[in-house]
Design brief:
Elements: H1 2-23, H2 37-56, H3 69-81, H4 94-110, E1 122-126, H5 129-147, E2 154-158, H6 164-171, E3 175-179, H7 189-195, E4 200-206, H8 218-228, E5 231-235, H9 243-248, E6 265-268, E7 281-285, H10 288-292, E8 296-298, E9 306-308, H11 317-353, E10 360-361, E11 368-372, H12 378-387, E12 393-395, E13 400-404, H13 414-430, H14 440-446, H15 452-466
Parallel strand pairs: 2-3, 2-4, 4-5, 5-6
Antiparallel strand pairs: 1-7, 6-7, 8-9, 10-11, 11-13, 12-13
Helix pairs in contact: 1-15, 3-11, 4-11, 5-6, 11-13, 12-13
Length: about 475
């Protein structure tokens, strides 16, 4: 039965990629003669136009956080100016170093660092939230080994923490201890306290969590970290450029940054609500000592002295230039306006969902809205939304779906369309008892211990399909 379900699911997933392979030449080796630039650009534009409609019209959860044509054109021009820059060679491109240092400083100022906060806060630019989190976990591993004599350091994190923490644990041979949530979908602080051992290097809190959009009680975690003498990483990759401005707009946002003395590191994605191009994030540390454990140096390589602050050696300096330009272009007033639009739209959608029979919101999120149902298969509802053009995020444990509100959803009419489509989808499923969503088998199996290995196999097979020509 599992194999039959796999075959069906793989056919659905492969069908997403088939149109691109069927309508354009597939290259399995280099062309004998190079193609004309104009010809290549024409093909790429055809592919891009096919993908543009859904995200540009506001049908996608997260993924594209700005998407305004003039902003995209601006960033593309910035990239073209800096396309050759590589921060690995600061002697050739000192501008890349300037951009990255100022990105870090501007980001730190939003999170209790800088001249008006903890002046020692420092950091680096990375390629995204996963790298920021992994860099931090590697730093804590080596810090714990060197400063505390812990041979096998642990990470203690909420069950809702991003998958990047598990990835880091696998890559750096650390144990990940997961802690349950309370009734408000925030980490259970007492359970976290009980999970800490003499091997714990760092505890984790999300601001907010990806699945449910809830902010963990970072203030209590800060007290816990200080009491136990361990690190506290705040994952604000998703909310980093929303929460500081939401607080200024009068929203009830608890402290979740370096203003709390127990917070020792924080990650924030500039390529999400910082509106930079994809491939940009910032990892911040309370002081330079901890940051040093992130960095790689070698003094005995035959090629000379070598240093790399992040996992990559060569890096696209143009992406950092784009990030710097986006931050300057928005400024505080631009981020405030954008945040207000997003939160107002989220309020409208939450209000609409509250009137849909059979659908309920999990917790009290600001703009990442997770919803489920006790009366129908929520994945079937998600499938019905897919048929109406939406691309939403499926969650598990418990089964749920979420929409992450972006500037694309603030376009006039999008919020109303979402609520109306969700109401119609819920009614459609409720009128068809026993309807199961396509994704139900995946999440159902993933939630069962005895089939989890098969689900890993499914994901690997999906990856194989992505790289198949």
């Amino acid at each position: 039965m599992l194999e039959e379900e796999f075959d069906f699911i793989m056919e659905v997933l492969e069908s997403e990629l088939r149109p691109y392979r069927d309508s354009h030449h597939v290259y399995r080796k280099l062309p004998e003669k190079g193609r004309a630039h104009e010809d290549i650009l024409t093909e790429m534009n055809e592919l891009a136009i096919r993908e543009r409609t859904k995200w540009h019209s506001g049908y996608v959860s997260g993924a594209v956080y700005n998407g305004d044509d003039s902003h995209i054109d601006f960033l593309n021009e910035v990239y073209s100016i800096n396309s050759q820059a590589n921060p690995l060679h600061p002697d050739i491109w000192p501008s890349a170093i300037k951009y990255e240092a100022e990105i870090v400083a501007m980001t730190a100022s939003l999170f209790g660092g800088g001249d008006d906060g903890v002046s020692s806060v420092c950091g680096t630019v990375s390629s995204g939230g996963t790298e920021s989190i992994m860099l931090a976990m590697r730093a804590y591993r080596d810090w714990a080994r060197t400063e505390k004599g812990i041979a096998e350091p642990q990470i203690v994190a909420p069950a809702s923490a991003h998958a990047a923490f598990e990835k880091a644990a696998q890559c750096f041979d650390m144990e990940l201890v997961q802690v349950g949530l309370d009734s408000d979908w925030r980490v259970d602080v007492e359970a976290m306290n009980n999970a800490i051992s003499d091997r714990t290097a760092v505890i984790v809190g999300s601001a907010p969590s990806f699945p449910h959009g809830m902010i963990d009680p970072i203030e209590e975690l800060s007290d816990l970290a200080l009491e136990r003498g361990i690190g506290l990483h705040v994952d604000s990759c998703l909310g980093g450029f929303i929460l500081p401005f939401a607080r200024r707009l009068g929203r009830r946002v608890p402290p979740a940054d370096f203003s709390l003395p127990g917070v020792t590191s924080l990650s924030a994605d500039t390529h999400k609500f910082g509106y930079a191009a994809k491939g940009s994030s910032v990892i911040l540390y309370r002081d330079a000592l901890l940051r040093r454990y992130q960095m790689y140096t070698t003094t005995n390589w035959m090629g000379g002295l070598y240093y790399s602050p992040t996992f990559a050696g060569s890096r696209p300096g143009a992406l950092s230039a784009e990030c710097w330009a986006a931050m300057l272009a928005f400024g505080e007033d631009g981020y405030l306006k954008a945040t207000k639009s997003i939160l107002d739209t989220a309020d409208q959608i939450k209000e609409g969902i509250s009137h849909i029979n059979g659908i309920r919101i999990l917790g009290d999120p600001l703009w990442v809205i997770s919803f489920t149902s006790d009366e129908m298969d929520i994945y079937a509802v998600a499938d019905a939304m897919t048929r109406r053009g939406w691309s939403l995020n499926g969650l598990q444990n418990p089964p749920a779906v979420h929409i992450c509100i972006t500037l694309r959803h603030t376009i006039e009419g999008v919020a109303e369309r979402f609520v109306n489509d969700l109401a119609e989808s819920a009614e459609e499923v409720s009128n068809s008892p026993g309807t199961m969503g396509v994704m139900t088998p995946i999440y159902g199996m993933a939630g069962a211990v005895d089939t989890r290995g098969e689900v890993h196999e499914l994901l690997l097979r999906y990856a194989d399909i992505q790289f198949k020509t």
